[in-house]
Amino acid sequence: MTLAIRELERSERRILGALRCIDATTGTLIEGSLQVVAANVRIQRNRSGLHVIAAAVPLATHATAFEAAPAAPALGSVSLSVIIRDPAERYLPRTANLALPRDPAPAHADNADSLFKPIDVALYPTSIAPLGSNWAVLRVSVTDNTSGDALGGALLRVRQGATVLARGLTDWRGEALVTVPGVPVTTWSDDPNAVVVSEINAQLDVIFDAAAGTRVAMVAVRGGRTPSVQPLVDPDSLETRRATLPSASQAVTLASGRSQTLSFSLALP
Length: 269
Fold this sequence. Notes:
4% of the residues lie in helices and 38% in strands. By secondary structure, the chain is mostly beta strands.
């Protein structure tokens, strides 16, 4: 018996990439509903929790190109700015700049810029985020040392030497929750008089871009008056440009399960 199959309808789509929004502390996929938007771009969430870039005006010629991607624009030459918000307010809003088009070659599927590999975008917790029982927790406030204004959108880094242990962002009140998982309960000591210790030494950095962050008078912060403009920064860009931005550092001692409150007074140009 021979079956004749007749094609009635065909639906073909070409995607341009996908975002994987992850928790900055744990590195795990954020499964809750997020708002991911960009101008002149269509982004859809799939069943795997990825936000798929389905269409973009700057890459309109890619929509109907299936056998081979168009030669222009060149790979990575288009910068796409995406805004990510969490309606549940577990995570702070942020922007992310994505380099498109992605490399469509199957032979390059393991490369960081491959079309077949989602782009990880880390979201940073708000002050109401749940905490792990053994995490070291830093609650940090950042202000301008002249006016006392709260600085929103400042990047915080906890590091040991060149190794970054954790990151965080300040909200409009200039306050950040920085959580450091993995601090051992006890570890070997460098002190010849002590075999083990329960604390580790680290540095806490703050980096602020006045052109991107916000400044709110402390009287408004104390009054709880939320400003109309909220901090909306790209923390990856802040980190890349940290050598050219106002910054400061201070020593911190971390311990498993310990919560500390710290403040920074930052000198701005």
